[in-house]
């Protein structure tokens, strides 16, 4: 089935009016309008980013910019949103399929590219909110530093420390700088032999998504 045919099938099953009515029953109009007009970028669509995107879509954020260069691998299935039939697909394409099953009437933009220090401004300079959702510490630092130095109007919400199976209550959100928030326990790392497990990864992603929603509605 082509992408266009798939989208048509999804939209035939439920109308925008039905989704809007359900949304209106749970959110005041002012909140709905702020969320719907918001634009959020997500850098990295793995355990953090795929969950963040789903949470923001379910919350009615109007435009999501999804950036990743990787494909869905079997090792992703223990903690990321993807499904077995999506193995081998670009993560941007696979996540878009999932989001369209949640709300096909929001605006989604994808970019299958690797984020580097050379393209940070080009990719994210027009966004007020960026979620950092990379796996590697050097990638995280590169994006955070790039945003803070080259994107003066952008707030970045980063994840740091969600490995293993420790107490999820240790995962918190802290404001480190005026335009930088960090979510996580700040210490656990997959390199410590703790592994990455779905509950704590999802908990950290929830902190990041929640902070973005707080900022949008503040």
Low-confidence stretches: none
Helix-strand string: HHHEHEHEHEHEEEH
- Average pLDDT: 94
Indicate the structural class. Answer: alpha/beta
Ends distance:
42 Å
How many helix segments? 8
How would you write the strand order of the largest sheet? 3-2-1-4-5-7-6
Number of strands: 7
Helix proportion range: 40-55%
* Rg over C-alpha atoms, rounded to the nearest angstrom: 17 Å
User: What form results from the Cα inertia axes?
Assistant: globular
Q: Report the portion of residues in β strands.
A: 15-25%
| Largest beta-sheet details | 7 strands, mixed
Walk me through the topology.
Blueprint: H1 3-13, H2 16-24, H3 29-37, E1 39-43, H4 47-58, E2 63-67, H5 91-102, E3 107-111, H6 120-124, E4 129-132, H7 137-150, E5 155-159, E6 172-177, E7 180-184, H8 198-217
Parallel strand pairs: 1-2, 1-4, 2-3, 4-5, 5-7
Antiparallel strand pairs: 6-7
Helix pairs in contact: 4-5, 4-8
């Amino acid at each position: 089935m082509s992408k266009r045919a798939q989208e048509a099938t999804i939209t035939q099953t439920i109308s925008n009016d039905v989704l809007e009515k359900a949304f209106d029953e749970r959110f005041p109009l002012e909140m709905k309008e702020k969320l719907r007009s918001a634009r959020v970028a997500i850098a990295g669509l793995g355990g953090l980013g795929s969950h963040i995107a789903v949470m923001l879509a379910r919350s009615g954020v109007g435009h999501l910019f999804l950036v990743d260069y990787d494909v869905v691998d079997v090792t992703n299935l223990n903690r990321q949103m993807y499904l077995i039939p999506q193995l081998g697909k670009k993560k941007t394409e696979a996540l878009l399929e999932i989001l369209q099953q949640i709300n096909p009437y929001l605006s989604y933009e994808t970019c299958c590219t690797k984020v580097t220090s050379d393209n940070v401004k080009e990719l994210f300079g027009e966004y007020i909110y960026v979620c950092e959702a990379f796996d590697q510490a050097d990638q995280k630092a590169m994006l955070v530093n790039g945003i803070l130095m080259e994107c003066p109007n952008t707030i970045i919400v980063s994840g740091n420390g969600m490995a293993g199976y420790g107490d999820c209550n240790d995962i918190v959100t802290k404001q480190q700088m005026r335009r930088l928030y960090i979510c996580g326990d700040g210490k656990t790392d997959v390199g410590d032999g703790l592994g990455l497990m779905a509950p704590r990864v999802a908990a950290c992603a929830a902190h990041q998504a929640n902070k973005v929603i707080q900022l949008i509605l503040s």
